[in-house]
Structures are given as structure tokens and as C-alpha cells.
Specification:
Layout (H helix, E strand, L loop, with lengths): L7 H10 L3 E8 L6 H7 L6 E5 L4 H8 L8 H23 L4 E10 L10 E9 L6 E10 L4 H21 L4 H7 L9 E10 L7 H11 L4 E4 L5 E2 L1 H5 L3 E6 L7 H16 L8 E8 H5 L7 H13 L3 E5 L4 H9 L6 E6 H7 L11 H10 L4 E5 L22 H9 L3 E3 L7
Parallel strand pairs: 1-2, 1-3, 9-10, 9-12, 10-11, 12-13, 13-14
Antiparallel strand pairs: 3-4, 4-5, 5-6, 7-8, 7-11
Helix pairs in contact: 1-2, 1-5, 5-6, 6-7, 12-14
Length: 425
């Protein structure tokens, strides 16, 4: 049974009063907001072996080695490894049989004085579930959404305590652990777009299910994983890349699905704006598609689709962005390069269905304004339902009479690109 949410003060105090856990807090970039909770509630001497903040880059490099980027997964991992190893080395002989050592670390950038920067960071904990055990680890990427730096620091402290509490008391129920990361917070304050479990305690955890859980809970609008089943941090993957995405059910992956992407990729590369740019191709599954009219995702069905896509060497994006303009906004916020979306002719008709845009003040016109504002291209795969039927292309599509001029205009301006290089078989 899921444990009721506990306030942050009580979580920190419970950890402090439990003699099993002892370790280090290393925090860079927004103050020592996590360890501050453990000092504030009292009893920190039973938990905190060391607390530190290596803010100066040279000092940080001297401790953890050189880093090209200081707010990065690599820097976080170096911090976790170094501090955990030091705890075991310095304290193991004296306490190894009775203590579960841990190292908590974060490296973040909060709101700057000018207030124009992205506010995000990496956070993780490396810990022993029991004395003398092999270490396990949880790593995540967070975005702080509050406007004020002080509020961001507060949120960071809360989610850090949630992570520590989850690692120590909920590691046997990882899905509840994920849910607990939101305790005493809302999705308007914190976004977690990457979460990875590893080590002996989580040997049976499939991180793709955890990525799905993030989107289900609203902790992130999207999550990503690669062909080797590894979870990926979307902003890092999308940064400075031209992006081509195909949405589908992929139940199963068909020759048509693969041909759509292959044909669109060939056209995409012909675009002068894409020349010499690295390209990321994505297969997108939406939550609406995964739910398929129900209220729960079929995990086995999801993993079966994910495994097939992995076998095809695909990077998968799970998103809660049913409307294409929301998907476009998500992608364009993370890359300045060209974005392309691959659709079949039937999806063009859906794109021109006004019922999907009733919540937009500008209706369907606002939809296309948002969708195409960064010169996004829609690559359209033709449709032929039977050998005797006419091939349907962007030039044969007929939408509602009052919308046809809009459609024709978008075709003329090159927003819709016909895929004439398809495999007729």
C-alpha cells in the first residue's frame, strides 16, 4: 500500500534518527539547500559525515577532475563516485558492519541576477541499501520552474530530501519512489525529465517504465530512451541538432513506418538549413496512444513496442503532447535547428479538424501559427488504400471548403513537403 505523503521536515528527521545511514552531501550551484534540511531539523550528526560545496571551478576540478561542463551528468557522476569512495575508505574500517554509506550530490544553475538563464541541474544519490552491500544509484535531471531564485532553491531542497528518503525507505517499491519525488511540491515548480535507477537494489527495474511513469505523473511532458534501453536527457540529446520525428502507434512497427522515416530523412537532408547539421530521428509515442481509450497503460504492450523500436535502432520519445503544435513548441525550445514531422495523408485531415483547437483563442489559425512559426516542415507520406484507388498526396487532399485556401497556401509556401520517393511496394 502506498505510503501517505510525509512533510519534508518529518522526512529529514526520520533519516537523521535512523542510525543506518551515514554519508556526504556535495552541492554546487544553488547553495546547500538539501543538507540544510538535515541541519535544520536536528540530529544531523547521525547522518552527515561531511557537507561541502566546491563552487570555484579550479577547486572543483582539483577534487573531481576536469569537466567541460559543470552542470552535467558527467560532473554529477564524478561527484557521486568520489564522495562515496571517500566515505567507504575513511569510515569503512570503523563502521562498515553497521552503516549503510551514501553520497548525495547535485550540480545546478538557479535563476541568475539577470534572470534569463535556463534553471536546471543534475541530482543523484549513490548508496548502500544495507551494510557491506554493493552500491545502488539514482540519478535525475531537474528543471526549476519558479520565477524567483529563492523559490527555486527551496524546491531543490525539497526534491533532494524526497530523493534521499525514497532511496532509503522506498527502494523496494521504485514506482512509489518516483511518485514521492513530488511530495510537498507541484509540477508547476519542478520538472524531472530524466530518471535512471542502477545498481544491485534496482537490478530488476526497467528504466523505460520509469521514464513512462514520469510522463504519466506530469513530472515531465516528455521522456526519451535510446536503442540500448538507456534513458536519455532530452535537452542534451536535442541540443544543436536538426530533429525529424515520426508519431505512431508502432503496434507493430511496419514497413510503412520505416519507409516513412527513411523517405522523410532523405528529403530532410536536402534542406539547405539541415546541411552539415547533426540529425536526430525520433519515433514518438503519445500518452493518448498508449492509453488507447483506457485509464491505464498496458506495461507489457508498451515494452513490446519499445523492444521492437529498439531492435530497429530507434530513439523513442514518449510525450504528453497530443497536439502537434505542443510537440513543436517542446522541440523548438530545445534546439534552434530545423524540425521536421513525418505524417501520413490521414493525419493531414486530422490536423485540419477544428475540434482539436477549441481551447486556443485563435483556433486552427493559432495552431498553425504555433506549429510552423520556426519554419517547421511537415513531410507527408502518400496513401493508396487499394491498387485500384487513386494515390492520395498533398496535391489531392481536400479539407473543409472554408479551410481549403489555408491548406493550399501552406502547400505553396512549402510547409507541407510531398514524399515522392516512397517505396511503391
Amino acid at each position: 500500500m502506498k505510503e501517505a505523503a510525509i512533510d519534508t521536515h518529518s522526512k529529514a528527521l526520520r533519516i537523521n534518527l535512523d542510525p543506518r545511514w551515514y554519508g556526504t552531501f556535495a552541492e554546487i550551484g544553488a547553495g546547500q539547500e538539501v543538507v540544510r534540511w538535515f541541519f535544520r531539523v536536528g540530529g544531523a550528526a547521525g547522518t552527515v559525515a561531511k557537507s561541502m560545496s566546491a563552487y570555484d571551478m579550479k577547486v572543483s576540478d582539483a577534487i573531481y577532475g576536469h569537466a567541460d561542463r559543470y552542470v552535467s551528468r558527467n560532473r554529477l557522476q564524478a561527484m557521486l563516485d568520489r564522495e562515496f569512495d571517500l566515505d567507504v575508505e575513511r569510515l569503512g574500517q570503523e563502521r562498515a558492519d553497521t552503516t549503510s554509506f551514501f553520497a548525495f550530490a547535485d550540480t545546478v544553475v538557479a535563476r541568475s541576477y539577470r534572470g534569463t538563464n535556463e534553471c536546471h541541474g543534475w541530482m543523484g544519490i549513490k548508496f548502500q541499501s544495507r551494510a557491506n552491500d554493493q552500491p545502488s544509484q539514482i540519478v535525475m535531471h531537474v528543471r526549476m520552474l519558479d520565477e524567483e531564485a529563492s523559490a527555486q532553491q527551496e524546491a531543490l531542497g525539497i526534491v533532494g530530501v524526497n530523493l534521499c528518503y525514497g532511496a532509503f525507505f522506498l527502494s523496494h517499491v521504485p514506482e512509489e519512489l518516483v511518485e514521492s519525488l513530488l511530495d510537498n511540491l507541484t509540477t508547476r515548480r519542478i520538472e524531472i525529465d530524466m530518471l535512471e535507477f542502477s545498481g544491485i537494489e534496482f537490478r530488476n527495474v526497467d528504466n523505460r517504465i520509469m521514464a513512462l511513469k514520469l510522463v504519466q505523473l506530469g513530472l515531465s511532458g516528455a521522456a526519451m530512451f535510446g536503442p540500448n534501453r538507456e534513458v536519455l536527457q532530452p535537452s542534451d540529446m536535442l541540443h544543436n541538432k536538426a530533429v525529424l520525428v515520426e508519431r505512431g502507434s508502432f503496434r507493430p512497427v511496419t514497413y510503412v513506418n520505416l519507409d516513412m522515416l527513411e523517405c522523410a530523412l532523405a528529403k530532410f537532408k536536402e534542406d539547405p538549413a539541415v546541411a552539415d547539421k547533426p540529425i536526430l530521428t525520433l519515433m514518438e509515442l503519445t500518452m493518448r496512444n498508449l492509453l488507447a481509450g483506457g485509464t491505464e497503460v498496458d506495461r507489457r504492450d508498451f515494452l513490446a513496442r519499445a523492444d521492437i523500436l529498439a531492435a530497429c535502432g530507434m530513439t523513442v520519445l514518449i510525450s504528453d503532447y497530443f497536439e502537434y503544435y505542443r510537440l513543436a513548441s517542446y522541440l523548438s525550445w530545445r534546439t534552434r535547428e530545423r524540425i521536421g514531422i513525418v505524417l501520413g495523408v490521414p493525419s493531414i485531415y486530422e490536423l485540419f479538424d477544428e475540434k482539436y483547437y477549441t481551447d486556443l483563442p485563435g483556433g486552427i489559425l493559432e495552431n498553425f501559427g504555433r506549429l510552423l512559426k520556426n519554419d517547421l516542415k511537415v513531410y507527408v507520406y502518400p496513401l493508396q488504400r487499394s491498387p485500384t484507388e487513386e494515390l492520395q498526396t498533398i496535391h489531392t487532399v481536400k479539407v473543409k471548403d472554408d479551410l481549403q485556401p489555408l491548406y493550399d497556401y501552406l502547400v505553396r509556401r512549402g510547409s507541407f513537403v510531398q514524399l515522392d520517393n516512397y517505396n511503391p511496394k
